[in-house]
Specification:
The protein is an all-alpha fold. The chain has a single domain (56-340), classed as ABC transporter involved in vitamin B12 uptake, BtuC, CATH 1.10.3470. The chain has helices spanning 27-31, 38-53, 61-79, 82-86, 94-111, 116-140, 145-163, 176-182, 190-208, 210-220, 222-227, 232-258, 269-280, 290-309, 314-348, and strands spanning 184-185, 188-189. A hairpin with a 2-residue loop joins strand 1 (184-185) and strand 2. The two termini are 15 Å apart.
Length: 359
């Protein structure tokens, strides 16, 4: 028999599987695996559980609209963390930055009598300024991002209190300004569509731009990135500018939604934002990404809404968020450990042995 003959007892390989090592799963099966998109399967499980637990209130279009609309602001804050976390930068000031933007635009509209457009522009610039201030602290002053942004968040909270130690409300926050958040399409309000728009922009940045890919390299190995010529300090600057800008947008939409400026309103959003970002990082490839984050925010919203409609105590909603964050961190660490073990095994395997039958 010639060396190139195929024995009749051995089936001819499917051409569609050519080049795939023996025993490996098809690519489409990997994309649908639980480890790659567990948030979607968890969301389906929650819907089934709460539909059985609260059959008269939970399974309705009203609940679905409530979850989606309620996830908009939380989604924006979570998305503000995606780029910094991709570069291993912790921005703990995003909640207070959103709170300062909330107070600033309410102060400009009510106390100063500004028009809607100038107030929005100034508040957006303030968001950029907060991101720039964080960048100066973390990059220029070389203060650890965890500590530095914790300190800047305290400063942002203080500035919000300076603008008003009590809630700011007035007719200026109703009417046309309130329409920004309450205008809906099919029951889904504008803020949710803006959240999707920001997610699209971040997805494109991470997947199709050089800077987006370099952010991941920075998060994986900062020293190695510097050695290959990547300007890591510039990337850190950009990442913190993105988080500050998105937090400013969230603050404007929050003010339009609640028709008031309230000191300390942004702090409770921080835990949910990190829970969603870390849970999203276990989806669609195992790194921080926009769509995994958005789906995780919806999952958290579904859980809290379901617990409320099922008559759960108020503390159960915070407990649910905390448990999700712990599970996300555990899953992320486990996934990294499995990937490292697979890499070590691949390096230890003799060259050419993978997928090659014994002679």
């Amino acid at each position: 028999m010639s060396s190139i003959d195929v024995p009749q007892t051995q089936p001819v390989a499917d051409p569609s599987q050519a080049g795939r090592p023996r025993g490996s799963r098809p690519k489409w099966l990997h994309h649908l695996s639980f480890t790659n998109m567990s948030v979607i399967y968890a969301e389906i499980a929650l819907i089934i559980i709460f539909s059985l637990w609260a059959p008269h209130t939970f399974p309705s279009w009203t609940t679905a609209k409530s979850v989606l609309n309620g996830s908009a602001i939380a989604g924006l804050i979570a998305l503000s963390l995606v780029v910094p976390l991709s570069g291993r930068i912790f921005d703990l000031s995003v909640g207070e930055a959103m709170g300062l933007a909330n107070m600033l635009i309410a102060w400009l509209l009510v106390d100063k009598g500004w028009g809607i457009v100038p107030a929005i522009v100034v508040t957006l610039l303030a968001g950029v300024g907060m991101g720039l201030f964080n960048a100066l602290v973390v990059v220029k002053a070389r203060i650890d991002s965890f500590i530095g942004t914790l300190a800047t968040g305290a400063l942002f909270a203080t500035l919000a209190t300076v603008l008003g130690d009590q809630s700011i409300s007035g007719p200026q926050l109703n009417g046309s300004f309130a329409d920004i958040a309450t205008t809906s399409l099919g029951g889904i309000e504008v803020p949710f569509f803006l959240t999707l728009l920001v997610a699209v922009a971040l997805w494109y940045f991470q997947k199709y731009t050089v800077s987006g890919r370099r952010i991941f390299a920075l998060g994986f190995n900062e020293r190695g990135s510097e050695l290959v010529g990547i300007r890591t300090r510039r990337l850190k600057f950009a990442a913190l500018l993105v988080s500050g800008t998105v937090a400013g947008i969230a603050g404007i939409l929050l003010t339009s939604s609640v028709s008031s400026g309230t000191p300390g309103i942004g702090s409770p959003y921080l835990l949910n934002a990190y829970a969603a970002a870390f849970l999203g990082a276990t989806q669609f490839g195992g790194r921080f990404n926009a769509w995994g984050t958005v789906l995780s925010v919806i999952l958290l919203g579904t859980g809290t809404a379901g617990l409320y409609l099922a008559g759960g105590a108020a503390w159960t909603q915070s407990m649910f968020t905390g448990v999700v964050l712990l599970l996300a961190l555990g899953a992320s660490n486990l996934e990294r450990a499995v990937q490292a073990r697979s890499w070590i095994r691949a390096k230890a395997r003799p060259n050419g042995s993978a997928g090659t039958p014994a002679a």
